[in-house]
Amino acid sequence: MFRTPLVLLALCVAAGCATAPRERSPLASAQIVPDFGTYSIRRVGLVPFTGSDVTGSQSAELQGAFFSEISASTSYEIVALQPEDLAEIPSSDPYRRGWYRPQTIIEVSRRYQLDALLIGTVADSQYFPPQRLSVQLDMVASETGLPVWSSSVHLDASRAAVRDSLEAWSETRLGGEAAEWEVTLISPRRFAHFAAFQMAQML
């Protein structure tokens, strides 16, 4: 008769294990320079997103999503810059050329008292189901005008791993309601927030 409590305890432990959240691998990847820790980075400018097919409204939506997620996940003070604040930055075309014009970075940073700039480029996107979004995000140090951290994420809602992580994110952020999960699959704004969340975890 002394076995019953032990059996009940084992069942409760097993039930707890069954309902625990599954481990999910991050969908974003990141690279960091070896001397990253030597940079004093507190105030970071977030540049409007660029890309061959990115409209002004899409760029603003992405910038808003990344502003929210990075501000929530890091201790950086994020400053959202407007296109007129750095008209020369897009001409660097870093995704295609692989480099930035250091002097432009340094001048913009001095003007707005920034320690670094976050510059995002959209390499691929599809804003109708199944949604796709591929983003490259670089942190460029004001001190040198060179990237010190880079991250990329490639999301395709038709892939099971992406849908699995997106569903888990929706449950955590939106309360797990079925209707909310369906909206997340078709909402470019929420998909952008999901991409930003993935990359913010790398900072």
Topology:
Elements: H1 3-19, E1 28-32, E2 43-46, H2 56-73, E3 77-80, H3 94-97, H4 102-112, E4 116-126, E5 132-141, E6 147-156, H5 160-174, H6 178-186, H7 188-200
Parallel strand pairs: 2-3, 2-4
Antiparallel strand pairs: 1-6, 4-5, 5-6
Task: Tell me briefly what this model is.
With 203 residues, the chain is α/β, with parallel strands linked by helices.
Please tell me about this protein's structure.
The chain is an alpha/beta fold and 203 residues long. The protein has a single domain (27-156, 188-200), classed as Rossmann fold (3-Layer(aba) Sandwich). It has helices spanning 3-19, 56-73, 94-97, 102-112, 160-174, 178-186, 188-200; strands at 28-32, 43-46, 77-80, 116-126, 132-141, 147-156. A six-stranded mixed β-sheet has the order 1-6-5-4-2-3, with helices on both faces. Strand 4 and strand 5 form a beta hairpin. Helix 2 (56-73) crosses helix 7, helix 5 packs across helix 6 and helix 6 packs across helix 7 (188-200). The longest helix is centred in the N-terminal third of the chain and has 18 residues, at 56-73. The protein is globular.
The number of distinct β-strands equals 6
Structural class: alpha/beta
Helical residue percent band: 40-55%
- How is the CATH topology named? Rossmann fold
